[in-house]
Amino acid sequence: MNHSSSSHLSSSSHPLARYGWDEGWEAAFAPHAARGLVPGRVVRVDRGLCDVATPDGTVRADTEFVVPRDPVKVVCTGDWAAVDPEGGEPRYVRTLLPRRTAFVRSTSSKRSEGQILAANVDHAIVAVSLAADLDLARVERFLALAWESGAQPVVVLTKTDLVPDAVGLSYLVQDVETAAPGACVLAVSARTGEGLDVLAAVVAGGTSVLLGQSGAGKSTLANALLGEDVMDVQATRDVDGKGRHTTTTRNLLVLPGGGVLIDTPGLRGVGLWDAGAGVGQVFSEIEELAATCRFHDCAHGSEPGCAVLAAVESGALPERRLVSYRKLLRENERIVAKTDARLRAEIRREWKRRGAEGRAAMEAKRGRQR
Known about the structure:
This protein has ten helices and 13 strands. With 370 residues, the chain is of the alpha/beta class. The longest helix has 51 residues. The N and C termini lie far apart (74 Å).
């Protein structure tokens, strides 16, 4: 047996294999293994403490040693971590392995900071309830963040049993497919089981994060995939899709059919966070048209020879798509500008602090010389 196949065997038979451990993580962890640390995957974070799945079971660990200034780099559900071995009390997360993907949104605070929702995710599942009117602009917003994260987006239309006829459902699916180029769109019903087998097959390959508004049916979907009622669900009114969910933390759950699922609380708002590439991916047909405009810096407003406006006029491009594209681009530009300003201010403060320390050291030195 050659070396590569033996290492593959060791990673696939590893106790953490069901959590997504593979040869890549094994290689990344090697320097920490040499220091006697234990690998683990963060399954839940709670006020400075976290639950970490290790080869010896789930342990409670303190995150005190991973407190970066950047809130996007804090310990998050889905992270792979190097943890103290047994014996110490408390046990500490010493460091995180570099993330492959990260799902980040902007916080609603005035400080223009990002908030990480899930790490090392392969599929970003955007749950959209068909119990309420379809909001395609919101779907596009979720998808921009999903593409930006590096994960493959999947739009899951839930509660299909509430749509009275098959023709109406097919139109809804088509509308979403138009708003989600490159993403897989599935229609499912946790109540009847329709479409769940296809979704289960998608999520079996890796780590999936479940996203969506409160009342989108995320916890019901999670329970259907898990085959048991793990997540608490409160009844949601079918009339308008409203209702309050009891999911308040992000939990990483191992699925019986393979793969792991990160369930997130209902998100009232998803602000973009430096998601320029993600926006471009969601509106790929507009970006392709823009490449053929007469002017390379065309704003698609009233310029002559604008291929995007020509497509809107001919009906090839829905005007709603262009309006949504402009809105998300503007929002993203604002966030990037605010973030750059915050970083510049932090750098200035750091230089001032270093300058003050330098001056104090010089004065102390002069005092000694005198």
